[in-house]
Design a protein that fits this description.
It is built from seven helices and 19 strands. The longest helix has 21 residues, at 286-306. It is elongated, with a radius of gyration of 21 Å. By secondary structure, it is an alpha/beta fold. The protein binds NADPH dihydro-nicotinamide-adenine-dinucleotide phosphate. Residues 118, 150-156, 158, 175-176, 180, 237-238, 281-282 line the site of NADPH dihydro-nicotinamide-adenine-dinucleotide phosphate (NDP). NADPH dihydro-nicotinamide-adenine-dinucleotide phosphate (NDP) binds at residues 118, 150-156, 158, 175-176, 180, 237-238, 281-282.
Amino acid sequence: METVKCLIVGGGPAGYTAAVYASRADLAPVVYEGVQPGGQLTTTTDIENYPGFENGIGGPELMATMRAQAVRLGADVRTGSVTSADLSQRPFKVVIDGGHEISAETLIIATGATAKYLGLPSEVKYRGLGVSACATCDGFFYRKKTVAVVGGGDTACEEATYLAGLCKKVYMIVRRDVLRASQAMQEKVMSTENIEVLWNCNTQEVLGDGYGVTGARLLRKDGEVFDIAVDGFFLAIGHHPNSELFSQWVNVDKEGYIITDGKTSKTNVEGVFAAGDVQDPLYRQCITAAASGCRAALDAEKFLKMK
Ligand code: NDP
């Protein structure tokens, strides 16, 4: 069985940043990137809100650069996914791809979260071509255009009001006759002139011309089917934290987000740390994920020094 001082699970901004810091702290980190190296950012185009890039940078490019930086500093970045973990005692036992066993003195969980989609084939077809699950990432490309946001929670309301500042018109597609969002967010939506809420509506199909989104076909509860013309179709129906493999051991909230201790990355299991979207239901930004990866590596370093 291979023994490592610091095992990092996840190849997104949190995992790579943890790897940068852990490498510089001589923890010889081993990183498993999972099935989507680069994480959620590889599904976006330009990132204009990551500091340091005056003209923005492509999501895949930023991730490739972070990965290369970690490797240059000595991180052992590998392709593979954790398939099981036993965190009942230290060192922790982690199995990769159902075969390779690793004994880890510390573990940093940075497995991210996955945006929920409706599951329509047309939505898959136009993903990245008008269909997006991140208004903060992609909203800018729809300046002065018309977009739709699906969902009625705080994220949907926040994204709709954000988009309303950029776009000509924003439709909110809400499946019930009420919003789930907090009162304050609801009021904000209702008082924004260029947001129109389409109540009791479900999306049947995302419409497109083969190159990009041109509209959406909706089914209202009263049975009426109608089309709206939109250039962008944003999903905001929640995220799913990728914590299942570890939730038997680490405390998670009711949504599955790993609970960390105060401002640290410490979980309830000594020596296990969590970083990035798997422990962050609120901010979910590349920069906040990277920062929490930094915290996790510093916490792991301190933990190993103290023991
Ligand atoms: P939520 O789970 O709160 O809301 C999801 C929304 O999507 C609901 O309106 C839900 O409808 C709708 N939905 C779910 N599945 C479908 C579907 N298949 N088709 C159509 N609509 C669907 O997720 P959020 O991401 O909005 O929020 C997650 C957590 O983060 C919440 O606790 C929220 O309060 C918090 N948050 C806080 C913010 C803040 O304080 N600034 C900002 C953003 C999030 P229905 O209501 O019918 O179930």
